[in-house]
Specification:
single chain; 196 residues; mainly alpha; 79% helix
Length: 196
Amino acid sequence: MSWFLAALAVLAVSQIARLHQIDPAAWLVCDYAGRIGALIVLAIVPSARRVAFARRPGKLAWWRLSLWIVGFVLFDRLLWRGLGDFLPKGAIAGMPPPAGWLRVFDLTFGLVLVAYSEEIVFRRCARHVVADGLGDGAAMVIVTSILFAAYHWWTGIGNIVVVGIVGVYAMIFYQRSEAIWPVVVGHYLTDLVVFA
């Protein structure tokens, strides 16, 4: 569990550092450094590496995976339109919008890194850590979704609530598929729709 807390600490320090950035490039450097740093922590600790980067065959057919991925994007969009508009915003800070080649780089590499790092940490690793005490059922789904939502603390209460609910969908998707890559793809496409 200490490796999980260490990865979360790296992510938290990165978040705090990036909140003080007004230059888009500096903001992204802080963001990417935290995400890559957390993945490095998971890679250098043998017990963490076995959890975070294990290759697991998926349990769902391609067509089911495709439906889940499309459902991920639609669920997020419908949730924002149905619930997000009524919740208070109140973000502490926002990302300074990148332009030109930096925007293209962030929409490709950056969003892939976001999706991959968050799914590894908040789906695969959090599931492993939380399931040890709570089992692999509803309590684990709720606790890991709360962790995922709490990671977005700086984005405002409305976003935190929506992210927590989307986290429930993502964890159930991961439980069903047993492979992390389809959840990463769904997360990436969701973020691409939002930020593009």
